[in-house]
Design brief:
This protein has about 280 residues and is of the alpha+beta class. Strand 6 (about 115-120) and strand 7 form a beta hairpin. It is globular and about 55 Å long. The chain is built from seven helices and 16 strands.
Length: about 280
């Protein structure tokens, strides 16, 4: 199995403009709104029924996505009926077709190879960002939709301007899931079966490697199902983030020196934990 890296985490949100405003108020730089297109079975380019903004980092990014047309055939159209928030875990691959063929040879259940695109209209570049991807079978009650992505035009999706954030955000370091022990264990097993190296620890916690990033699965008896509960981001310093939270009226608290929790449950369905680079 080829080593798997982290490409991006995607949030399905009910109101893209509102979620954009929330993250912008917290000092994040977001890309311009873009509408996805996909290639259908006849080879035509058609609307995919979704729009997005990205928060880019030097490595990896966050995607905010709204399903704008549930009838267009988007595979996550029903996600918002169950919950909003983090739904997509996208793993990176340098060759989506080869990785897809390898998974099929190994007997993994994977979806068809798809080709999508989105327009890039930024001050420093314009064009059509194209990408190829495939997914693992998904149900709307699953903790996440897993897919493998190859960016065919990587020069378009990220620039120096995109990764400059007023709150000094640098990178995503971890995504945390939690749920009752049997379900959490099954989720960790599924991720390991899909190729993520796993380290199991006492207390029911599993750490899965995604290149330089990690995915944590925790056992929690107070939850009825496995859900994303926390995302860790690295910041150069937390002072600007704290000021942005105060100005925006967003609840936050210091957990320990160099570590701050920001309550984004109402907006994105999880807690954001900011970690100063010097605290790592």
């Amino acid at each position: 199995m080829a080593a798997l890296g982290f490409d991006h985490a995607g949030f399905i949100v009910p109101d893209l403009a509102r979620s954009h405003a929330c993250l912008a108020a917290l000092g994040f730089t977001l890309t311009s709104r873009a509408d996805h297109t996909m290639t259908d079975a006849q080879g035509r380019t058609v609307p995919a029924g979704s729009s997005q903004h990205s928060v880019m980092f030097e490595r990896g990014y966050l995607e905010l996505m709204e399903i704008t047309d549930p009838s267009a055939g988007h595979q996550l159209a029903s996600a918002i009926q169950t919950r909003y928030g983090l739904h997509i875990l996208a793993l990176s691959t340098p060759d989506a077709a080869a990785t897809h063929a390898r998974y099929e040879q190994q007997g993994q259940r994977v979806g068809a190879l798809r080709h999508w695109a989105r327009p890039i209209r930024e001050l420093d570049r314009q064009g059509l960002a194209r990408f190829a991807f495939f997914d693992s079978p998904w149900h709307k009650l699953d903790p996440a939709y897993i897919c493998w992505v190859q960016h065919l035009t990587p020069e378009l999706i990220r620039s120096d301007r995109d990764v400059q954030h007023a709150n000094t955000a640098l990178a995503i370091s971890a995504v945390h899931y939690a749920g009752p022990a049997p379900a959490a264990g099954a989720w960790a097993d599924r991720l390991e079966h899909l190729g993520l190296p796993a380290t199991r620890q006492a207390g029911g916690q599993t750490t899965l490697a995604m290149g330089d990033d990690r995915l944590e699965v925790h056992s929690r008896a107070d939850l009825h199902s496995v859900l994303p509960v926390r995302m860790d981001l690295v910041f150069q310093t937390l002072a600007p983030l704290r000021l942005h939270c105060q100005a925006a009226g967003v609840a936050h608290r210091m957990l320990q020196p160099g570590v701050m929790e920001v309550d984004l449950q109402s907006e994105l369905g999880l807690m954001l934990v900011g970690i100063e680079a010097t605290a790592i």
